[in-house]
From TrEMBL, chains A, B:
This is Putative geranyltranstransferase. The keyword Magnesium applies. CDD domains: Trans_IPPS_HT. Its cofactor is Mg(2+). Signal peptide: none annotated. GO terms for biological process: terpenoid biosynthetic process. GO terms for cellular component: cytoplasm. Belongs to the FPP/GGPP synthase family. Pfam families: polyprenyl_synt. Keywords: Isoprene biosynthesis, Magnesium, Metal-binding, Transferase.
């Protein structure tokens, strides 16, 4: 694996991000190519289309950094981190549907339902979501991670992505469209819609790394802060970005009168809040020493990223 | 629990079915009422609407009968069988969507998307599917069933309901609409679309009951045969039934030029095949003695049911 960095410059975290993305992309690209999947050709093709459409793979990379922070080489755990990308990808497919956000473009490519039709897109999302749990329960990982730990990961992932997590947040987002909500409600919404799966990513790294109670608590607080920071940064990018950089229509959120941090706090207020969350994230892992440098670098990257 | 029956008359299996349904209904009705669920009011309401819209609860009841057949009182295991109904219910919600089968009526009631809108119906399905795994990984069941066993149940459920199971079968069904397929392809389709989750129900009972290898094998064969029989019976009901009995438009399958057993084999041919599958199911569990009487009764009931 990449050496744990001492001087966590931007370049070094970028090397870790590239390293993580390459590992995750490679592992994802081997999914659904088995002979049995051929009988379900169009469905598995549709799943692979969205799964391999790019993306920063920030969720599994956060788990990797959490594993590093508790003294584990993350590389062997990559297969058990793919479920995070499967869940993230299914949520994008379903979100983009005409019945939901009705987006035709994602990362510069036609969305799943545009290519495969709405019905296949719904089923592809369902199958990706379901397969996340097939991976976690695969006996081939019995030696890598105990059944007890992987069942805890099942719990964390299903909680972070379900009714009281990501899906619940998506529902609140939908319900709040067209009306202005309070900052408190906005935070609740985003702590679920985006923050919950980000937090789960960090916690899953901690679970797989069998972190002690104190380490787990630090990582938990880090994940909470980074989850909020991620959404604020996303909102800011949407305001400041342009279609060319993002591969989707910029300022879409504002056109639809969506609730965002810049809309409620102003651009400067949102930037200030993002910085506070970054500080909180860095504080949370201050006791973990150099091993947490990847976590620190990712937190900074999330606030400062330009796409 | 209901006494294991010696003379497995229709009345006695009906008592077991009623008993199982009452237990499952009662356990389902307590879901998503916790205070936290209140913050996601409309989504949890939508989930409960479809979850409590009736149904025979045949999947968890099959698990109960499998548990009985290996000498376990099924009642304590009811919470761990609810995931089967959550998965079955989500699949109905997504199937009924305008982008899929576009059904307005299910069990005599307006379908989920008719009441709550398409977007909420998609999210309610996603959340039900996800929550199935939250239940299985809940530490409150650590004493009832080991992490090892419950992780095996996660695997069985995700496999039976995913790409190589139910969702894959739904995709094949959709792709075969409007063209005649071979009996071999029809069997492959239905072994996945309906059969896989029926088989998983039986296997989950066997897993929870920690069946020995020989018992497991018998139950596996039983589940395979009953899964096919269930679909043939469903097809026959659709041909012979009427809208009043079924609460949905009868003969809909034929109008859409769907592939069914009666369409390929004729009504008499389909009835003959259903009887052969019943015999195979009964044969499979012939070595399990009286403990398997519920399984026998359910197999007969499935072939002979009128709705």
């Amino acid at each position: 694996m990449v050496e744990l960095v001492k001087n966590n410059s931007g370049k070094e975290i970028e090397a870790f991000l590239d390293y993580g993305k390459a590992l995750v992309d490679s592992a994802l690209s081997s999914l659904f190519l088995e002979p049995w999947a051929g009988r379900f050709g169009r469905l598995s093709e549709s799943m692979r289309y969205s799964l391999l459409a790019g993306g920063k793979r920030i969720r599994p990379i956060l788990s990797m950094a959490a594993l590093s922070s508790v003294g584990h080489d993350p590389e062997p755990y990559i297969p058990l981190l793919l479920p995070l990308e499967l869940i993230h990808t299914y949520s994008l497919i379903h979100d983009d549907l005409p019945a939901m956000d009705n987006d035709d473009l994602r990362r510069g490519k036609p969305t799943n339902h545009v290519v495969f039709g709405d019905a296949t897109a719904i089923l592809a999302g369902d199958a990706l979501l379901t397969y996340a749990f097939t991976i976690l329960s695969d006996p081939r990982y019995d030696e890598l991670s105990s059944e007890k730990v992987r069942l805890a990961v099942v719990r964390e992932l299903s909680h972070g992505s379900g009714l009281a997590g990501m899906v619940g947040g998506q529902m609140l987002d939908m319900e709040s469209e067209g009306r202005r909500i309070s900052l408190e409600d906005l935070e609740f919404l985003h702590r679920h819609k985006t923050g919950a799966l980000i937090l789960s990513s960090v916690r899953i790294g901690a679970l797989l790394g069998e972190a002690g109670a104190s380490e787990f608590n630090s990582l938990d607080q880090y994940g909470e802060s980074v989850g909020v920071a991620f959404q604020i940064a996303d909102d800011l990018l949407d305001v400041e970005g342009d279609a060319a950089t993002l591969g989707k229509a910029a300022q879409k959120d504002n056109n639809h009168l969506k609730n965002t941090y810049p809309a409620l706090l102003g651009i400067d207020g949102a930037k200030k809040m993002a910085k506070e969350k970054l500080e909180a994230a860095l504080d949370a892992v201050s006791g973990l020493g150099e091993k947490a440098d990847h976590l620190r670098g990712i937190a900074r990257y999330i606030i400062e990223r330009r796409n």
